[in-house]
Design brief:
single chain; 249 residues; alpha/beta; 8-stranded parallel beta sheet; 11 helices; 38% helix; globular
Length: 249
């Protein structure tokens, strides 16, 4: 065992209303799944407080995004200070949809990460390559470039969880094989060893995301450098509890 506590995040994306969220929260009642696993769920921003108030287990609530400054004329954005004011501790940054749908650059994501950490918010930092980049043999190059943006900022790695999410596996039903995922996670850990420190490389949790299901999670969880999951669509379904329990299954 690595000593790194298993971590499972559920990214609800732009899904849900109070009725459907009540159904999701029912999964967690008496599930006993949060004792030896760090569990974080990320509802849409309008429901952050609702979920925090009604989630009756040890899971934490995360925001799906935040901006790089505390306040100002930035219509539609939320700040880490606002997230903290709600009593929350986590935010997801750098998700492929923010990078490739909304055009966020490596530098912007790095600035947002630095500001969130400075405001006392922990970060799930997402990286991952597109299919054409993998096919061109650029998997290392792309993921290392995305990581380098925050290495250059001298961030507090003890408050970051890295989520490797190959873009070609997100929402496609195609999952990186356990061997493919483990290979990239090992590359990431070696990168941290070289660029940050051996200690941080050993302690930083690197989780996998990309069509994780109750059927494939157990095999993925056995790999030495896969420390958990960031789950999309499956986190809206009862099978999410099975994914949380993947390492203990």
């Amino acid at each position: 065992m690595t000593g790194r506590k298993f971590f499972v995040g559920g990214n609800w994306k732009m899904n849900g209303d109070k009725k459907s969220i009540d159904g999701i929260l029912d999964f967690f009642k008496d599930c006993g799944c949060c004792g030896d696993v760090d569990v974080v769920v990320a509802p849409p921003a309008p429901y952050l407080t609702y979920v925090k108030e009604h989630l009756k287990c040890g899971a934490k609530v995360a925001a799906q995004n935040c901006y790089k400054v505390e306040k100002g004329a930035f219509t539609g954005e939320i700040s880490p200070a606002m997230i903290k004011d709600l009593g929350l501790e986590w935010v997801i940054l750098g998700h492929s949809e923010r990078r490739h749908v909304f055009g966020e650059t490596d530098d912007l994501i790095a600035d947002k990460t630095v500001h969130a950490l400075g405001a006392g918010i922990n970060v799930i930092f997402c990286i991952g390559e597109k299919l054409e980049e993998r096919e061109a043999g650029k998997t290392k190059e792309v993921n290392f470039r995305q990581l380098e943006a925050i290495v250059a900022k001298n961030v507090d790695w003890s408050r970051i969880v890295i989520a490797y999410e190959p873009v070609w596996a997100i929402g496609t039903g195609v999952t990186a094989s356990p061997e493919q995922a483990q290979e990239v996670h090992d590359w990431i850990r070696q990168f941290l060893k070289e660029k940050v420190s051996e200690e941080m490389a050993a302690s930083t949790r690197i989780i996998y995301g990309g069509s994780v299901t109750a059927d494939n999670c157990n095999d993925l969880a056995t790999r030495p450098d896969i420390d958990g999951f960031l789950v999309g669509g499956a986190s809206l379904k009862p099978d999410f509890i099975k994914i949380i329990k993947a390492r203990s299954a």
